[in-house]
Structure formats: C-alpha cells, structure tokens
Amino acid sequence: MSNLHKASIEEIKQVQWLQLKKQLAYLQLNSPFYTELLDHRNVNVQNIQSYEDFKKLPITTKEDLQQSNDRFYAVPRHEVIDYVTTSGTLGSPVSMGLNDADLERLTTNEFGSFKLAGVEKEDIVQITTTLDRRFMAGLAYFLGLRKLGAGIIRTGSGLPQLQWDSIERFKAKYLVAVPSFLLKMLLYAKENNIDFKNTSVKAAICIGEPIRGVDYSLNALGSRISELWDIELFSTYASTEMATAFTECEVHKGNHIQPELIFTEILDLEGNPVQPGEIGELVVTPLQSQTMPLLRFATGDMLTYTNAPCACGRNTERLSSVVGRKKQMIKLKGTSIYPQNVIEILTNFEGIETFVIEARRGELGTDLLTVKVADSFPLDRVKVLIEHFKSRLQVTPDLQLVKKEEIEILRIPEGSRKPQYFRDYR
Known about the structure:
By secondary structure, this protein is of the alpha/beta class. It is built from twelve helices and 21 strands. The radius of gyration is 22 Å and the shape is globular.
C-alpha cells in the first residue's frame, strides 16, 4: 500500500484528481459506450476542471451495464485475460473482463486491503470463499496475498470440518470469510466438540455481509460472532463492477478508501453530495481501470462516510457499512425501512434458526413484507417477536412459520454464490 494514505488531505485530493483526469481521457477515447454517450452530449472531458464540472457528467446505472454490456469493453478482446460475473442480486448478472493491467490493479487493491487489516508476510491466511465460478473476490484475495508474500490456504466455501482441519494443520492466523458462514463454523465446532477458542486464529476479514452499523459498532451478526469467539473482526465492502475493496484498519471506524484506485461520491436522491454522516448512494469512478472503465457508476448501495482523519494516522475518507440497497427500500405502512433493518432484528433474536425476507407489491400498489422463519421457532415466542418488530421499526411484517428446507431453497437458490436473506418480488 502506498504512503498516500498518510499524506495531507490536500495532497491526497491532488493525486486523486490527476488520476481521475487520466481516467476520463482514457474512457472517452477507448470505450465505445462512453465515446458515444459523451459525444452525443457534446462533452469534452478536457474541459472538466473541477468537481462542479465533473458532477454534471451522466450517471452510469446497472441497467446500462446489463443492456450494453459488450460496449463497455475498451480493449481488444484478445487482451482480456480473465472474465468474471457479478452476482446479479438486483437483476441479470453482468460479465466483466480484466486485462493484465486490471489484474495488477486488482492485486494492488487487495494487497493494500490486507495491509490495512494488519496482515504481514509472516502470516498465514485461510480463504474460505471460492476461487472459481467466475467469482472475482476469491481471485483478488489470492493475488493480494501472493503480492504480500503471506501463506495462503485455499479451502474454498462450505465444509466446516475441512475449515477446522485446515486451521489445525496449517495454523492460520487470519480467515477470509462471509460472517454468516463464520457463525455456521462456530455452531459446527460446538456441536462437534472442537476447541475453537484455542486455535491459531486471531482475526477474520469479513466479506459479503455487514458486521457493523453506520455508527461503526458491531451489528447483531458481528456481535453474535464476537460473543462466541474472541477474535478481531475486520469489516470490508466491495463489488465486482468497481473491482475495488474498502477495508477497515485496526481502529474499526469505517472502511478506508484507496484514493489512487477509486473516486467516490455519496449522493442524495436528487444527485447532490450528502454531508458526512448522512445516508446517500455510493457512486464510483474506478481509477486506472482499462478493460471496462466506468464513469460515475451508481452502485445502488446506501451508506454514510466520514472525511475526518482516522486515529490510525491515515487521512483517507472512510465508508460505513451498507445500510441497504436503493432499490430495496420498502415503504411499509408509511415507514421507510431497508432489509438490513429487519435482518438485524432477526439475527439478534434468540431461537430463530434460519429465515428469509420477501417483499411484494399489494393490490393497491403498496409494499408488503413477509418474514419466513423456520418452524422450529417456538410458538410462544411469535408474539414477542412481533412486539419486538413494532418497538424497533414501528411496523410489523407478516410472519410465517415454514419448513426449514423451504427457506434454504429460497435463501440459497441454485447457482447462487452467497446466501440471499432478502427476496424482492416487486
């Protein structure tokens, strides 16, 4: 990781702006999608001299990527080395290509991310996520650790017994894992008398699911893991489209931006920048990206940020965990909520084995919300849960007790790379 993180805020902004200007010139010259779009709007990126100029440029949406996927390629296809695919959480999956320079950029990003979490060359890291199935993250973790020189254990996803066997055999210090799978590993260990409290593991780098709230404190999922296992938990945030990860440092007060690799904006519903601490949509322009450069790409993720210097000595902006997806906001009986608000309550409520949340549109055009809980949930606790929803959210979803097998089919549909606790049928 470069020393830019600890430079002055003004110097960081200058370096980032120079990288942004280079990226704008590159995509207007090389990307068929942006060449046509900017020419049609009579925009010459050479005239972009300030953020006021920049924010007048058009927003790129996920729908743009889906509908014009091939036109985003800015290099000849024979230069593409690796192909990846998004998870398609909110629509059709999108294919992304990476050339040699993009793979090096991906390596640099994850190298910096692991350094933020304190990983050193002498450490051993166990990657509990897949490196196949066109999944970018698993490859990125491997490349970053390879550059760092750390030991790598590629166990892949699932198989709790293999995870514990590998920890015992190779003495991993760090795990890279989805938080809900960490919880599954811990429950498996308790059921099988594995002494997980006396292993080599000191920390987990948590991916794919938030473990903290916007105030940076551990949420229900993070708290449950922490209560069971006294290890350090690091929050991260990333997406395939931006090929960039944001990771927290040892202070655990937000996910640091790597400014030489990405330009970030957090915007309100009218497209205006929000103030630090206010919730807005993350809009990104990845820097130094060649194969599929993106301009002001709207991630759909709602979060907050802070630009205050971090106690770790870094002066880069930091992002909170994702509050929810912009398109997944639910207006239930006049109250605006996100799936994560419901997930927090269910994760923290004793006796719930597994669940899935479903949103539908009612006959009158209003949002309907159903929570399906495994029928092992005690009946005498149903009323307590409903009251809990009412006190926390001011509204109550429809609660259904169904067979665990039905929930698992909904939660992990065929071909899915990660569990889906929220299904949107609107």
